[in-house]
Amino acid sequence: MSTIVFHGVSKAYGSTRALDNVNLTIEPGKIYGLLGRNGAGKTTLLNLLTNRLFPTDGEIRLDGQPVLENDAVLGRMFYMMEENLYPPRFTVKETFNWSKIFYPGFDMPYALELTKKFGLNVNKRVKELSTGYSSIFKAIIALASNAEVVIYDEPVLGLDANHRELFYRELIANYSTNPKTVIISTHLIEEVADVLEEAIIIKEGQIILKQPVEDLLARAYTVSGEASKVDSFAEGKKCAGVQTMGKFKSVTVLEELQNKDASLARELSLDIGKVELQKLFISLTNA
Q1: How confident is the model at residue 86 (pLDDT cuts 50, 70, 90)?
Q2: Smallest Cα–Cα separation from 269: which of 212, 226, 206?
Q3: What is the pLDDT of residues 256-282, one digit of tens each?
Q4: What are the phi and psi torsion angles at 90 (to 5°)?
Q5: Are 233 and 223 in contact (CB under 8 A)?
Q6: Tens digit of each residue's pLDDT (9 = 90 or more) over 39-64
Q7: CB neighbours of 102 closer than 8 A, spacing ≥ 6?
Q8: How remote is the C-alpha of 72 from its chain's centroid?
Q9: Contacting residues for 155 by C-beta, under 8 A, at least 6 apart
């Protein structure tokens, strides 16, 4: 099942609350995007989930079992971190063998197949890998881990465009073949938008939104044109993401577009457009 539940979870560092009373349910078998600005609490949330930090208050459970100091539960999750914690003296292939000790379902043939696709030398030592190939190395272990929950924190750091595209394709193929819960924490929202099924947005330590991406984008739109006319159109509507340039103005409307609003926009000679996930994220987190 792999249902993850955060119940009243907070994390404080002195007077600073990195997470504040988070209540969140992550259902199994979906690809989630954990989105937030720097310092919003993304990494803290993931570190709490994987027991690298302990909550000040609240509890986290996987299928009803607490994650706190529970090796059986933690062994069902794989966390690809930005930091490289693998033994630096090991070669790539030695690290694959080492990973199989902790993840018995680790698919060695698949991992070796991926090294060929990505052009990763299996005989190279971990400490000798560039930033990009270090990300590739960690992503391959995550893909081949066969864990029930796989968490990626900035998985394409240092990758060129071709390798990023290859990673996203492999992620989808892997997910389709072996359904699991996937959580991707990234700042490259526009790039990953087509991969995500559901978005979780965190702001100042609190979850402000959890919604399927398709539904989220369907319930917002942009309106742009002459500033005074945009102001007239937007009156009484829930708006964010205001951009002004001279007499021109663009606003993100956080409501589903109604026929009467579309008609009004035409009367005012305003342009209605779709919202991209990244721009909607910016609008929501700047509001």
Answers
A1: confident
A2: 226
A3: 999 999 999 999 999 999 998 988 898
A4: -70, 150
A5: yes
A6: 999 999 999 999 999 999 999 999 99
A7: 75
A8: 25
A9: 80, 135, 138, 139, 142, 167, 184, 186
